[in-house]
Specification:
Layout: E1 2-3, H1 6-25, E2 32-38, H2 42-58, E3 61-67, H3 73-85, E4 91-94, H4 104-110, H5 122-129, H6 138-149, E5 158-162, H7 169-178, E6 182-186, H8 193-197, E7 202-205, E8 223-226, E9 230-231, E10 237-238, H9 243-246, E11 252-253, H10 260-279
Parallel strand pairs: 1-11, 2-3, 2-4, 5-6, 5-7, 7-8, 8-11
Antiparallel strand pairs: 9-10
Helix pairs in contact: 1-10, 6-7, 6-10
The structure holds nicotinamide-adenine-dinucleotide.
Nicotinamide-adenine-dinucleotide (NAD) binds at residues 139, 162-165, 167-169, 186-188, 190, 193, 206-209, 212, 227-230, 260-261, 264.
Length: 283
């Protein structure tokens, strides 16, 4: 069994990004990322701080627009429009979730597709489904990179994805389908989840439920990708799978923390460099 070291792969990617920002600085270009943070959700703030720190580490200029949870939708749209026109900003991301009175789709659709580094705009989602180059959402993109780095073949494999959100499960399913895997997507209303996971050569789980996948739910030599991030009752970060028991049975497994999580930030930075090159006309 191999424990997939997402931290190590992410660090390799980050080193490359540092080189690229150095190269871009010779053209007098500093890639810029604008983050919009609405409300005072602790987890969202932690993610935003992590993203800003990483940007600083690699030489990406970043700015955080903090707004109270009572902010109007129009004010958020105005800020996005301002960032769309700001030449120093190459990537724009809105930290999710947004307060209930805000129409998330309207907000995401307001981001200029060439600055949509989270890849959540329908323009980029459509390109992903059609297998045309665009911005890929960072978490599924990071998982695909792990498959590549660890030489895990997808063609012809049976995949079970547990969790069907727009930001994780659905884009991951399309990316794996584009690599000729046969993909089964499960969610909260799936009957007999175990009958699906047992058929799979690769199980990817992003549901946000501790111990959702147990040892009896996978066959021998399964590749297990744990996307979930949960805090257990002792305050420890854990994923969605019973890591201790599954790891005895599977061929590859991602730990939490240190698996998919670090890849997400690395791929966001990679997307920001790509956006800077597109927006500044650099090949
Ligand atoms: P979400 O709430 O939008 O979607 C959860 C999905 O899981 C839904 O499709 C739901 O139907 C399904 N689900 C929930 N309970 C289930 C159950 N008992 N059985 C089967 N399916 C079930 O969440 P999300 O934003 O997609 O995030 C999912 C998890 O992934 C969370 O733990 C989140 O913290 C984590 N996440 C991690 C990263 C990372 O970088 N590692 C990035 C994004 C999200």
């Amino acid at each position: 069994m191999v424990i997939i070291d997402g931290k190590k792969v992410a660090n390799e990617i980050i080193q490359k990004i540092k080189q690229q920002t150095k190269e871009l600085s010779s053209y007098d270009i500093t890639p810029g990322l604008a983050v919009i943070l609405v409300g005072d959700d602790t987890a969202s703030r932690t993610y935003v701080n992590m993203k800003s720190e990483r940007c600083k580490d690699v030489g990406i200029y970043s700015i955080v627009h903090e707004m109270p949870s009572s902010i109007s939708q129009q004010k958020i749209l105005d800020t996005i429009n301002m960032m769309n026109q700001n030449e120093n900003i190459d990537g724009i991301l809105v930290q999710l979730p947004l307060p209930k009175h805000i129409d998330q789709n309207k907000i995401l659709e307001a981001i200029k597709p060439s600055k949509d580094v989270d890849g959540f705009h329908p323009f980029n989602m459509g390109r992903l489904v059609a297998n045309i180059d665009g911005f890929l959402p960072a978490t599924p993109y990071g998982i695909m990179e792990l498959f590549k780095r660890y030489d895990i073949e997808l063609k012809g494999k049976n995949v079970c994805i547990v969790g069907a959100s727009n930001i994780v499960g659905k884009p991951l399913a399309s990316l794996m389908l584009n690599q000729f895997a046969t993909v089964d997507i499960c969610h909260i209303y799936t009957n007999d989840l175990k009958s699906h996971t047992l058929k799979a050569d690769i199980v990817c789980v992003g549901a946000g439920v501790i111990n959702l996948i147990t040892e009896d739910m996978i066959k021998d030599e399964t590749v297990v990708i744990d996307i979930g991030i949960n805090k257990n009752k002792n305050g420890k970060l854990v994923g969605d799978v019973d890591f201790k028991n599954l790891s005895k049975k599977c061929s590859y497994i991602t730990p939490v923390p240190g698996g998919v999580g670090p890849m997400t930030i690395a791929m966001l930075l990679k997307n920001t460099i790509k956006a800077a090159k597109i927006n500044k006309g650099i090949k």
